[in-house]
Amino acid sequence: MGATRLVILFWALSAVDVALAGARPSEVAVGALFTYDSSIGRAAQLAIELAVDDVNAEGTVLSGTKLNMVTQDSKCSGFLGTIQAFQLMEKNVVAVIGPQSSGIGHVISHVVNELHVPLLSFAATDPTLSASEYPYFLRTTISDYFQMNAVASIVDYYQWKRVTAIFVDDDYGRGGVLALGDALAAKRAKISYKAAIPPNSNLDVINDVLFRANMMESRVMVVHANPDTGMRIFSVANKLQMMTSGYVWIVTDWLAAVLGSSASRDIKDMSDIQGLIVLRQHTPESDAKNKFISKWNSLARSRNINSGLNSYGFYAYDTVWTVACAIDQFLNSGQQINFSTDPTLYDSNGSTMHLSTLKLFDGGEQMLRQLLLTNFTGVTGPVQYDSDRNLVRPAYDILNIGGSGSRFIGYWSNHSGLSVAAPEILYQKQPNTSTSPQQLYNVVWPGGSTTTPRGWVFPNNGQPLRVGVPIKSSFKELVSGKGPDNVRGYCIDIFNAAAKLLPYPVTYQFVTIGDGTRNPIYIDIIRRVAANSLDAAVGDFAIVRNGTQLAEYTQPYIESGLVIVAPVKKATRSAWAFLKPFTLEMWCVTGALFILVGIVVWLLEHRINEEFRGPPRRQITTIFWFSFSTMFYSHRQNIVSALGRFVLIIWLFVVLIITSSYTASLTSILTVQQLETGITGLNSLISSSLPIGYQAGKFTKRYLTQNLNIPMSRLVPLNTAQEYADALNRGPKHGGVAAIVDEKPYIDIFLSNYCNFRIVGQQFTREGWGFAFQRDSPLAEDMSTAILQLSESGQLERIHDEWFSRPSCASDDDSEVGETRLGLRSFSGLFLICALICLFALVVFFTRIYWQYKQYSNFEAAGEPSAPDADSVKRQQRLSSLGSFKELIQFVDKKEEEVRRKMKRRPSDKDNQAAGSSYATSVDSA
Questions:
Q1: Which of 264-268, 818-822, 855-859, 902-906 has the lowest mean pLDDT?
Q2: What does the pLDDT look like over 290-308, one tens digit per residue?
Q3: What is the pLDDT of residue 882?
Q4: How far is 624 from 662, CA to CA, in rounded Å?
Q5: Share of the chain above pLDDT 90, in %
Q6: Beta strands 395-402 and 405-413: pairing type?
């Protein structure tokens, strides 16, 4: 019993120790720092009070512990906000809610990092407030990183490429614009101009900033500012006529907060913001949300507060619950709320700052960990953090301001992009932003227009467009000029005609590049466009890969491609031209095959066909006559044997091919010009080692060396059409070139003046010529549309005909030039088949002859009279005689019919002899 009492006493003492160690405090202090008198602060103040009351009334959270909220007014001042933050820390708070300003958030984040006090902001949206730099900062609203992605999605949806960012030049504005630039770059768009407005600027400063922004080409304005400065921006913009048709204004969520907080909206202010697109944090509809709105409105009426509730009030309410749940989990885990002195903080002699009163929260790291594990559903929807410490499921409502209020046009979420379906519905499906159709309802734009603005106009800064033009020493039909005011040519006329079709006036000035003696390097001109030394490049610019990486090209205004031109010579007229279609080897083999087929057919027909018999002289004549008469299908001999007919059918097919090829080749020789260098196309050009000419400055050199792997040593740069002709005429043996590779429009001009050259082979690249502009320049798209209009109206063809006449000495069948003689290799397969058929027929024929010969020999031997002793000798001599070659030839020469007749008669003679011998024997016996 004594031992049992001791054990019970030990358990009781342990339980008391645990209870004392885990005793929950009667209350816990949490700080709140925001600006009371502001659109966000007024909504947040009541929301925080309601949240504290609800937490303290809730029995399941902080049971037995009261949540005490200590608030401080930052008064929209970074300095005062910092002072207020220090005052909150003196009161041993375990967390701080706020601030609503990103600028103050940057400052006091350093303080909470030092004191290990978590800082939860429901309104500081600057994405540069990162966890890596500020580990104790936790954003309880949506980061501007997501908001700027929503803006970029809207810009991409309407296919705008350049925007003007108007922002307040502080941490909040700069951080947001930085995120906007990254988001636009992912959509192949960019910020073309940044209009930074200093904080607390007056109307004159704002007027100057907007006036400069209005001089730029972009008409898509993205406004990221605070409410006070933002409303002044629209007032000034309205006076500058920037709220009229053709402009686009996209405003971040600050304006939605202003409109939501304004219980009685000023009609004058609403007239300044008609047609704007506004973003607002999306909070899904729920019973908890509706209940909170009702309680907030009741409390506001009881205190005669005229402002309304905005989305930041919802996030402030959920922030208090987030802190309460984290404290509850902190205490439930057995942690104690203790503060200790920070040795790095002390008051120097004479200092009145009382830094020593600031305490280090010992459980700050554990409290931060519990905050990051938050997972509940609040009035803003799911409250949970991802690995980057951002709230899950960020989404925005997209509104269109019109009349005295706003109109809903769609949603944005990082799950599905733009849509007209609520994000909470789409979150139930798989993310598919890349392939799902992005959709928004129709928008009424500034000026009351329902037509989507182009978003860009020619800049009204008084500077003409700088248009670079290459000046060369030849091909002046394309581009030529002696100065900026004297530029003409086919390309220039097309550019001028297209510029007249633009829906806005464009002033431009040509900048000539090149001295007219040597060709400029075209890719260097494109690089000048990319480097902003030129605004555009106009001329014979091929749209090639390395150029499109630097600049934006228009729709091609003429088709182009690389071709090969080589020298040709007239076909010589001689009495022996009919022998040229075939080579000597071809003639010899063809003649031999004719004789071979004649001999084969004679052998197959000689024993059974009277037309192939007779005196030797006649038979030889028949062989040659039959062979060569088959060339004209005029042979008169009838073929009787099956093997002969089989051989003749194959041979007549071979004759058909040979005669057809001969006719075609002879026609080509007598009518078509012949190549001098043997280059007939791209393959022969690559495989040869002959020098090749190309136009200096163009992309041809790079293509030949990089794409076709032709050594640089074979390439010869040429500048003018005269140099083309001289190099081709000299040829490879005299310091010239074997062929020239250039784009077809140049070659067409060249061949119209030089008739002893022709295009060989086929065009082996496909590209076109276009005008080059700076990357993502809307002018390139508008010029492309104008070029298409020129093409559809026929004006593009008329301009072409004005500058290019049909080549006077170039035939339409330029591709027909080349080698026309036919060699043995072209018919080797056909000849081999014919020879094998003849061999097969001969093998069958001689096999049959041999079999007949053996049968015939046996019958001959059996038919000889027998004699004692001498009979066997005579029989052997007879067999030897029949087996001789002469006898074999004589047997082959015999008619088939005669051989068969003799073989049938021999058996009857043998029977008669046997009968006679039997009768003689019987007589003798008698």
A1: 264-268
A2: 999 999 999 999 988 888 8
A3: 45
A4: 21
A5: 43
A6: antiparallel
Please give the C-alpha separations between residue 67 and each of 19, 61, 328, 839, in angstroms, as whole numbers.
21, 10, 10, 112
Parallel/antiparallel/unpaired status of strands 536-537 and 465-470: parallel
pLDDT of 815 above 50: no
- Where in 353-476 does DSSP place strands (E)? 359-361, 375-378, 381-384, 395-402, 405-413, 417-419, 465-470
pLDDT for position 434: 53
Structure tokens at 750: 């060249």
3-state secondary structure of 139: strand
Q: How far apart are the first and last CA of the chain?
A: 160
For residues 503-513, give the mean pLDDT: 87
pLDDT tens digits along 332-375: 988 899 988 877 665 555 555 566 677 889 999 999 999 999 99
Cα–Cα distance, 256 to 40 (Å, whole number): 11
The answer, yes or no, to whether residue 273 has pLDDT greater than 60, is yes
Whether residue 340 contacts residue 358, with contact meaning beta carbons closer than 8 Å, is answered with no
Q: Which residue has the higher pLDDT, 692 or 598?
A: 692
Which two three-digit tokens encode residue 373? 């594990």
Burial of 787 (0-12, 13-18, 19+ CB in 10 A): buried
How far is 56 from 63, CA to CA, in rounded Å? 8
Which pair of tokens denotes residue 259? 């409109």
Mode of pairing for the β-strands spanning 562-569 and 674-675: antiparallel
Query: Is the distance from CB of 261 to CB of 47 less than 8 angstroms?
Result: no
Any idea of the CA torsion for 800, 802, 804, 810, to the nearest 10 degrees?
Answer: 110
Asked whether the predicted pLDDT for residue 671 surpasses 80, the reply is no
Sequential DSSP letters for 736-767: --SEEEEEHHHHHHHHTT-TTEEEES-----E
Distances (CA, A) of 76 to 102, 142, 202, 737: 11, 21, 17, 79
Q: Which alpha helices (DSSP H) does 551-608 contain, by range?
A: 584-605
- Residue 584 CB-density burial (10 A; 0-12 exposed, 13-18 middle, 19+ buried): exposed
SS3 for 480? strand
Nearest to 386 by CA among 123, 146, 171, 147: 146
